[in-house]
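Recap from last week: sequence in, structure out.
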Amino acid sequence: MLLCLLFSCLPALPLAAGEMGRGHFVIAGTGDSQELLRMVAHDFMSRHHGISVEIPDSTGSGGGIKAVLAGTSQMARVARPLKREEKEQGLTYLLFARAPVVFAIHPSVQGVDNLTYDQVIGIYTGRIRTWGRVGGSPDRKIYVANREAGDSSRRVLETFLPGFRNIHSLVGETIYTTPETVAILRSTPFTIGYVPLSATAGTALRIPTLNGYAPTRETIESGEYPLAIPLALVWKKDLTPEQQLFINFLLGPEGRHIIEQHGAFPPR
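Predicted structure tokens:
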């Protein structure tokens, strides 16, 4: 009784860091893998009760990395390689897939099964203004969704799509996240935009071939379809057992199957 009284009078000691909520962790960052990793996390949590994986809305690759460095997110989802100064912060980088960047079209447009490089440049410079000019029906005005400078998909286009970098003034509205771009493409007739193929899974968006090539693992590896972004996870501290279990699931057969189902390609 004396011992019980003694301990009841002692002040409550704070829990050591990580003792509370060890089964919950956050993966912040880019919208390019947001929906894909939500699918993976949903399947993972259905198999591992007691572990909660949170995939919040997009803050961009840079925002996810800042959250990891600030300690507000345990991992970051990124759609680009690490910059030199980020590597110097002691971050670990894990590539888990490559996602083709595609031109997605609202289903109100029929007949556009392929776009050439020149047609893409024409649309984004405003030289081509109606769908009939590229074989589309009905011949209505083309509404263009663009992305901000520095966006991962736009950076791929500027690097690998001939002439895209040299467009001085891109036409269309600038959209700032991949999920918002997909939402606008789905809701706005006669619209075109560029997004990772994995972000279009489960939508009715039309995906034309580019210069005659579909975005497949084979055409990406051969370079015939040159547009793809890396999807990766980044972290700084040692992974907890729960986080390592998620990584193992992502890289294992179940995770790879989900990734491939949604139009991205895990490393061989």
